[in-house]
Design brief:
Number of strands of chain A: 6
CATH architecture of chain A: Roll
Number of helices of chain A: 3
CATH class of chain A: Alpha Beta
Strand order of the largest sheet of chain A: 1-2-4-5-6-3
Largest sheet of chain A: 6 strands, antiparallel
CATH topology of chain A: Thiol Ester Dehydrase, Chain A
Low-confidence stretches of chain A: none
Largest interface: A-B, 37 and 37 residues
Order of helices and strands of chain A: HHEEHEEEE
Shape of chain A: elongated
Structural class of chain A: alpha+beta
Number of domains of chain A: 1
Mean pLDDT of chain A: 95
Strand content of chain A: 35-45%
Oligomer: homotetramer
């Protein structure tokens, strides 16, 4: 989906709307994650290590990784919406690949199949340790596209 | 798995160890969730509504629900460990069924197939509104049982 | 979902339509599976052991189990359709619990959340050995409800 | 995982063992699928269109696609085994992306994370119509690596 073409003025509207929705999410602020890249069909978020994001062995908590997957996949799908539409996450599955050590998590979501009613999104989470990325989790999500009441 | 029999003294040791691990999880405290029921192969957790757990429409954030699933499924599997073993979540999948309105989330995990190396756990999350439970999400998890180095 | 009430005449129409669709599936015949129970939101299928359904160790092949899950979940969801609607499987996940030995597989699917555009269906597959059922697999499926062009 | 290096003589042994296991699968023959590419961590299979592999609308049956995913992911993981080990599929999830029209299905599985006890494998299924591939399904599998009794 990389390289989708979109009219720049239209994209500015979409970007503004998406970031505005994200800014209203209490849990996003509570976790302290940020959107660091947004493009048609793509979203990258990241979060810095803080004690309150960890589990008992000092790794990032799986639930923190799941939050990033939940959010980034929905945001990636929402960049392809038309006016009057919204996204609703139907489901996702995530596999943990390596313990999430390090200073930061980076989460990259990408729409693999946009749809009128369902979009399928893949997502990979990496932990960054001494500047090196390590694959922490991979996920596959189904996002419903719903039409808002006028 | 309900009604597994276990020696009460042995269970007290397990319960103490499990709750001790949970108490060391920064993210559990940050979300503010609590273990409210623990039995062999079972774990129930809950969390009260707070603005920092919500998404932009005022429902509990999907990432908060995913955290509960992540944690409760691993805890349920960990109640069946033997000495020198630990759990490591391999993967899970969750389906969102209804918007999670209300005052509280209740998350119930139950081992459906305990294994020497893999346990399969189901999990259901309910939102509680005016005392009534509504099915918010259902999940299926695979938890690896690993032997710790001595 | 057990015990949904439905007008008997209406149900006869649905049952006829569903079984008619199933009868047109070449792969269903090729595997040799049969619908043995159908009710609103429910479908049970089964298949007898034959050498061509097995894997190299003599158990039922995982792909045969996946076929049963694929079919029974879609059929269960299709019992709740209105006129002019059809089902389209969006995705499913299945966990294998025990080797599928024995003479027969029984697959039970049940809608846990019917929806206007998405239904969520759980499914369990049992192998029957000497008259005893053993849990072979458990699954969770998302079935899209689509409106057919007139 | 593409491009893993392996001693050619050792690879010949692995290839022979893997193809030998596949040849003993009754369901593989019944579906009529074939392994068309095998490399360390990779497996591609394909199957030609036949009426007995279809569903009621004339597309390849979802259960046939699931069979390909089931088999190719396990085979891909099995190419990385050491002597005395075997694979056992723990679970997988698949998303259907487009109706599987056309003359042939091609299924490509690739290990994304090999492990001592669990390997994670991605898999994509394409339908080939007039020489053009169309993405039919994408999947994510967890394959257990078990040590056989001596």
């Amino acid at each position: 989906m990389t390289g989708r073409k979109v009219d720049p003025a239209h994209w500015a509207v979409i970007e503004h709307r998406v970031l505005n929705v994200v800014a209203q999410q209490g849990f996003m602020k509570h976790v302290g994650a940020q959107v660091v890249h947004l493009a048609p069909g793509e979203c990258t978020t990241q979060v810095e290590r803080r004690p309150e994001l960890l589990q008992n062995m000092g790794f990032f908590h799986g639930g923190c990784i799941a939050f990033l997957v939940d959010n980034a996949t929905a945001i990636a799908a929402s960049t392809l919406l038309r006016a009057g539409q919204a996204v609703l996450t139907a489901e996702y599955k995530l596999n943990f690949l390596n313990p999430a050590r390090g200073d930061r998590l980076v989460c990259r979501a990408r729409v693999v199949k946009p749809g009128r009613t369902l979009s399928v999104v893949t997502c990979d989470v990496y932990s960054v340790e001494d500047g090196t990325e390590r694959h922490a989790a991979t996920a596959l999500a189904t996002i419903a596209v719903v039409t808002l009441p006028p």
